[in-house]
Amino acid sequence: MAVSETLETKPSTGIKVIIVGAGFGGLTAAIECVRQGHSPVIYEAFPELKILGDIISFGPNAGRIFHRWSNGKISRKMRELSIDLTDYGFNIHKWDTGEIVINQKTPVKDETAPVFNGHRGELHEVVFNYAKEIGVEINLGHRVENYFETEAGAGIILENGTKVEGDVVIGSDGVRSKARTLVLGYEDKPKSSGYAVWRAWFSNKDMLADPETKQFCENGDTFNGWIGPDVHFLFSTIKDGSDCCWVLTHRDEADIAESWSFPGYLKDVYKVLEGWDPMCKKIVSKTPESVLVDWKLVYRDPLPTWVSGYGSAPGHGRICLVGDAAHPFLPTSAQGATQALEDGVTLAVLLRKAGKNNIKGALRAYQEVRYDRVRKVQKTGETTRDMWHKTDWEVVKKNPETIQFPREDWIFAFDTEKHTEEVGDEIIANVTATAA
Ligand SMILES: Cc1cc2nc3c(=O)[nH]c(=O)nc-3n(C[C@H](O)[C@H](O)[C@H](O)COP(=O)(O)OP(=O)(O)OC[C@H]3O[C@@H](n4cnc5c(N)ncnc54)[C@H](O)[C@@H]3O)c2cc1C
């Protein structure tokens, strides 16, 4: 069956899936539900689509998912918006001298599992439009206020009091998820990770006008990182050098909520960069202060469960969390959005396998398939940060490869759709037997 000229879908399962939130997690869950034969409908609080955020990364394990959408049509669009480092690679500098300790080569392109680093808002728009194109109903300007479920169905209540009913509800409402509290009864207590990032995305026109920085904008895209004691600074130029973005991770014990929109101040950034290669300050000085974001990185203990009525959670097993609502990531893993995608794919496959009469089995199996992998990937956010922030430069001098950004097969080569097709039936059978 085909819902568009290019997208093949499985026969209808008759499962109505209500999805809360139209971030990458919610949109991917919806698109994958269409592929697997379910009927998704999205409710999103934002009244309109806005190009929000700055740089976001998708590893090859996400590229593999995008590539399956309409035979590569979507991944080709995303490719045009993403950094191309085929020739440039990644220059890793020592923080004080500025010397390049290694040029980490870009892996050979795999068209079936591409990597995307680009503007979150622009890439999000591509995915959003694709979901609409294949017929997903997206209701913008509808904040979800509450959730309900019985043995026979589940649904949401919107802020205007409207009740929407379906077979299953996916709470993909992001890092400050209301579903987490309302559905699982879990009191979320974020704690400071001891770090924060300043981040910015802007046009390169001032960078081009400066003879010292124009080298980064003249010959296509670039990627440079300076690694220092408890601080790292990553700087990319993108769109053939016309835009740029940087992210600086540093110590910060401030105990406030994380946000994509807290204003940042250049004077604070300069303080952290004292004693650093002067090029870093030069780059930062081109930033319009209005686009500088100060984002506190907080930790959350792993949720005991992502599914209602499972483990310690109350309920009937028809509501679950995906993406940041279930498992926020530190940016140094570069896997937060990718793991939200893997969730949506896994869930849609399991719902098809378990069928309309065993939603509980599908959701429990979803948690079983995903939980340990997500925990392991989450930890890489800390290990990469610590590897960079506690660098032993004597070791790096002898062995520069030790400072490269880790690219691990168990993360990148993973195909969550294939894996779920292989293990799904057995896991559904196991969790269903235990539930009976
Ligand atoms: C505005 C914004 C900017 C971001 N910028 C970046 C960035 O620059 N770089 C980066 O790496 N990551 C960024 N992220 C986070 C990144 O998108 C996520 O970590 C990742 O994509 C996982 O996505 P998600 O779908 O789980 O959550 P999110 O992308 O956070 O999506 C959650 C969605 O749920 C909606 N929502 C929340 N509560 C309700 C409710 N009660 N009712 C209905 N809808 C609700 C939100 O409006 C949001 O659209 C940003 C997220 C947001 C929301």
UniProtKB/TrEMBL annotation:
Q: Which SUPFAM superfamilies match?
A: FAD-linked reductases, C-terminal domain, FAD/NAD(P)-binding domain
Q: Which InterPro entries match?
A: FAD-bd, FAD-dep_Monooxygenase_BioMet, FAD/NAD-bd_sf
Q: Which GO terms describe its molecular function?
A: FAD binding; monooxygenase activity
Please verify whether the record's keywords include Repeat: no
* Record keywords: FAD, Flavoprotein, Monooxygenase, Oxidoreductase
Taking every annotated instance into account, which residue ranges of this chain make up the domain FAD-binding? 122-377
Note one Pfam family from the annotation: NAD_binding_8
**Keyword Oxidoreductase part of the UniProt annotation:** yes
Q: Do you know which PANTHER family this protein is assigned to? A: MONOOXYGENASE
The record's family statement is: Belongs to the paxM FAD-dependent monooxygenase family.
Q: What is this protein called?
A: FAD/NAD(P)-binding domain-containing protein
